[in-house]
Amino acid sequence: MDWQELEVFQTLAHELHFGRTAERLHLSRARVSQVVQTLERRIGAPLFDRTSRRVALTPIGRQLLEDLTPHQFGIMQAFARAADAARGISGTLTVGFSSPMAGERVMGIAAMFRTAHPDCEVAIREVPLTDRYSSLRGGELDLALVEFPVCEPDLVTGPAIFCDPRVLAVSSAHPLAGRGTVRAEDLSGETIHVIAGLPGYFLDDLIPAHTSCRRPIQTTTSWQELLTLVAAGQGVTVCAEQGARYYPRPTLVYLPFTDAPPLTYGLVWPVTAATAMVRAFTQAAIELSAGIATPRPVPDHPVAE
């Protein structure tokens, strides 16, 4: 059996349609039929039952497919390892995350990445809330999945991976707690708690603006302390809806904004660290998030934004 016979047989066994098999392999239908007939003569028995309406594997064809599949996978893995080595895709990639949902998404991307690149390992680390970018700049992380926007001249922002609705967390005793939703103007006069160390441009994007708002800002270094202050009625905080899932408290209420867009999470890496592994992980993230977010092209060369 030559390589084309193997490829035609396995593709037709999955498609069960000569036309689609020909399209996938960029062959003519006549060539597909010819290859199958040659293979069946070599085997000495039909591999497919075919009529004008359907194509189906014969028992011998099914057995051949089952026997070939693990060997085919091994061959493809061998080629993948060789290609990865040529492109420098091997070793350990360290990926950060800044929130529980981002952590779950990183785990999913990492699983897909490891399957495609078996000689790679992925180490997952939490990003320090008070300094989201120091681990990237210091080399402890190769890339991270964090909240956007990221406007740092030495960092590259990749594709958006997912979005999460923006909400206002308040004490269950707060006057707004009985409302189903809130608007930006409801922040007027409220003390807003945030994590310390967030860049000014990030705060401007995080907290919905309103011309009549006077918004005193209080900072803290711990997310649990921040939630405790909010639950105690000492202010409010703007966050992602995932907070209601991962940090539920009987004394907290999470209220969606009706006039603020969702928070966006995406990949970011240092300008000097756009390696083949980083690009391969980013491509896996794009493929996994298809239909969830509209990805931007991965830069061929590091470009600061």
Protein model, in words:
The chain is α/β, with parallel strands linked by helices and 305 residues long. It is 39% helix and 22% strand. It has 3 domains: 3-86, Arc Repressor Mutant, subunit A; 88-163 and 264-288, Periplasmic binding protein-like II (D-Maltodextrin-Binding Protein, domain 2), CATH 3.40.190.10; 166-261, Periplasmic binding protein-like II (D-Maltodextrin-Binding Protein, domain 2). The protein contains 10 helices and 12 strands. Strand 8, helix 7 (200-206) and strand 9 form a beta-alpha-beta unit. The longest helix has 29 residues, at 59-87. The radius of gyration is 27 Å and the shape is elongated. The relative contact order is 0.15. Residues 1-58 form the HTH lysR-type domain. One of its GO terms (cellular component) is protein-DNA complex. One of its GO terms (molecular function) is DNA-binding transcription factor activity.
Keyphrases for this structure?
D-Maltodextrin-Binding Protein, domain 2; 3 domains; 22% strand; 10 helices; Arc Repressor Mutant, subunit A; elongated
Quick structural summary:
Pfam families: HTH_1 (PF00126), LysR_substrate (PF03466). This protein is 39% helix and 22% strand.
What's the layout of helices and strands?
Elements: H1 3-15, H2 18-25, H3 29-43, E1 48-50, E2 55-57, H4 59-87, E3 91-97, H5 100-116, E4 120-126, H6 134-137, E5 143-147, E6 155-164, E7 166-171, E8 192-195, H7 200-206, E9 217-220, H8 223-231, E10 237-240, H9 242-246, E11 252-256, E12 263-270, H10 276-288
Parallel strand pairs: 3-4, 3-5, 8-9
Antiparallel strand pairs: 1-2, 5-12, 6-12, 7-10, 7-11
